[in-house]
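re: that chain from earlier
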Amino acid sequence: GRKFSERDLRLLNLFAPQAAVAIENARLYTEIRQQKQFFEDLVRNNPVAIVTLDLNYRITSCNPAFEKLFGYTNKEVLGCDLDELINTAETMAEAAAYTAQAQAGNVVTGVRQRRRKDGTLVDVELAGVSVIVDGKPVGVMGLYHDITELLAARREAETANDAKSQFLANMSHELRTPLNAIIGYSEMLQEEAAESDGSSVADLQKIQGAGRHLLALINDILDLSKIEAGRMELYLEDFDLRDVIAEVADTVAPLVSRNDNRLVVSFDDGIGVMHADVTKLRQALLNLLSNACKFTQQGTIAMNVRRDDDARMLRIDIADEGIGMTDEQMGKLFQAFAQAETSTSKKFGGTGLGLAISRRFCRMMGGDITVTSEAGRGSVFTIALPEQVRDAEVTAPDEAGTGIAGRVLVIDDAPEMLDLLSRSLSRAGYRVSCALTGSEGLNRAIAETPDVIILDVVMPRMDGWSVLTALKEDPVTAGIPVIMLTMMDDRNLGFALGASEYLMKPLEPVRLLSLLERYCADSTGTVLVVDDDPVARALLRRHIEEQGLNVAEATNGREAIEALESSIPQLMLLDLMMPEMDGFEVVSRMRTVPAWRDVPVVVVTAKDLSAEDRTRLSGTVERVFKKDAFDRESLLDQLNALVGPLTRAGARPND
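^ sequence. v structure.
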């Protein structure tokens, strides 16, 4: 209730600005103190270990989480060099580089191991940032997050995934082995029944059909499991799309006619060579066509191959006049183990895996499968895959050399390597021809039948192992020695052990007989069958003896080695997964004994072969050279060893 005098009012007006400034400063000071306290509490209570450094990399502070993680107290670390404190001799240089980068203003991150006070190592996710004040760096802040448990969990998951993969491989073997007997014996019994009264042929065909249906189901489950585990691999190569489409159309012809349907195939102009995984594309096409045949009665199935220039894609439309689908049914169409509706599987059969696998195959190749449909009016499935993009045009060196020492074909996608080999070998008296691609190399090998082929492993479109397989399958080139030229590391080089062929169980008798004809032209020799499954051995013995050949048996790898020590066979049929000593070890040991190296080995396996397995069993390889250790003298010595007998004995008839 006090009234201010005029004098008091004049004094208040005089000091009001200073009072207002003081009040504002007090407010700002309080706010800064609160912010500082907030950040101090944030650092102190943070579960992440935080440490600050000055410009000399010396520790100026650390939070309790740092003390707990590394076992040091705050007093022990103040003034210490952080890198020297928590690093070993092995990690010191890399840690110092991190610190220097952070001080230069860069944000650095990584997952590394660091040392605790007690000497133990801890897995940490680290980050380093520069501390800037008024535009100038004043230090560095380091953050360390203990991820030991996370890494342990990841390792557990990886171990479980490996165990799952091993289980699938074993399951593949265990299921395919009895199927081998079911399908193989049913085929032979059909032949015998047809020669007698024929009354049981129909029943045997049902047994065989059931066996093949079960085999297809096993293969689908394994494919899906490999895709989900990220272990499915692509084998890319060049192929003529028209030829593949024609082959697929021939394959599904019986399914088309079964329901009185008609298949019509059409192409846009300019459809030719494609670069993709031909096996997976073929599988997707067969699946879509078989579904179209299944759901269409007395209708037309149209397959049109067209080019989408705007999207740079090739599209294959498969249209049917079948039962069609609703929007709800299409929503779950590509889910694994799902059918459009429950009644579909009851009426038409199927597991719901085919479409899921086919779409995933296409997506692995950078494409997709889509569908449009209308209930009662049919469906249109479209496979879209990227167009082939060819590399810049390069030319191989012309033929060079006199040919006095022999003729060599070099297949390599690197022009500089072709030039190097061409010059080196031609100076040594060899006649050298070159090919830049696997397909060109195959054509030259057939046309020229060289004394030796030098083959690069890693090439686009068609790699060296695929070329090698094709060479060994062609009677014209099967006997030509091959020297592999590779940039792979020594561990992988050791896997090139020289199996001649491999067959998958269940056996295809026609394929087996063709191999017997190739490797056992002399019927006086013996075929050694190595398999721990007595049923499989009996089935193989029966097929082989029908060709007038002698058979010896071994139940495991150890017995196979003992059999080789007693008598060298003309051919070995070898299972991969056996007790005591597996097939890989057998092949490895054979290549260490000179007398056994030339025995052709045909692997007969139910194992689902990985890329590593294919490499280990790659065809009759005479020698493997490493590109980054290329030794001209060693190569010439090997060539002389391979072609010397030919040149000493005289020129070939077609020289």
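Residues 298 and 368 are 29 Å apart (CA to CA).
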